[in-house]
Amino acid sequence: MRNLILHILMLGTLPMLGCVRGDVDLLEARLRSKDAELRALNDRLETTERQLASSRREKTQLQQQLARNSAKPEEISRLANVEAIEINPRLTGSLNEDDQPGDDVLNVVVAPVDASGEVVKLDGRVEVEAIDPSLPESERKLGQWAISLEDSAQQWHDGFLGQGFQLTTPWQRPPQSREIVLLARYTTPDGREFSTTQEITVTPPGGVGKTPNPLPLPLSQDEQSETFPEIRPVEFQQPAPSSKPFPASVPKITPAPKDSSPNEPRPLPIDADLQPIPLNDVLKSPLPRETPPFAE
Known about the structure:
The protein is an alpha+beta fold. It is built from 4 helices and 9 strands. 30% of the residues lie in helices and 21% in strands.
């Protein structure tokens, strides 16, 4: 009897043991997943720390290099802010200084800028190249000019229309067209290089110059006849003569009597050819309708 009771109790607890075992397996699976995520986060943290340490070493080396070049602390901050360069379109163009037809001087203003487009005043090497796209490829280069790192501080322009390194120089080769492309390069003290391009309009020396895209040639006579229809002049036709002849004589107008007073109405002139209208016809004719006012 006792054994029978024990068997019954064991059979009743078996489902409960199975449920507990299932919960344990689920919990172990979750722990393994969390452990894998933790290891991945630790790997990312180690990678980030290595990159941060490398950046700090590069920053220290850069500061030491600038210190050896007698750079000022504010220049170190400006060097880190430079992200690009731009050509000032309001201060860049060609000038006529010899009073001869055409422009003979090129003026370019190049400035380094930060990520927000603000000008950063930092000495550096500036190179400018002018290209005429209308010429053959071997002849397109009109000249190349440079401002050294040592002379860049003296060439800095600070005016109402903008700031930047100003280069004013005559053409090495005069342009042949009005559209010129400028290529500017800027090298920072630590060796980084930035470049940009800008198209300007100039007046070539000695004349207006040719345009990169010439106008099309006029159409031939055969092409015009195929493209445009023939236009014929319109013949003027005189109107046919009227069947009613003009009156042979002008009706006489009866003048007003001289002794009539100025306050009395003067009789209207009567045409001899006019016939009176009977009163019955006037009464029978419908009255004219009033035209409604124009609705705005």
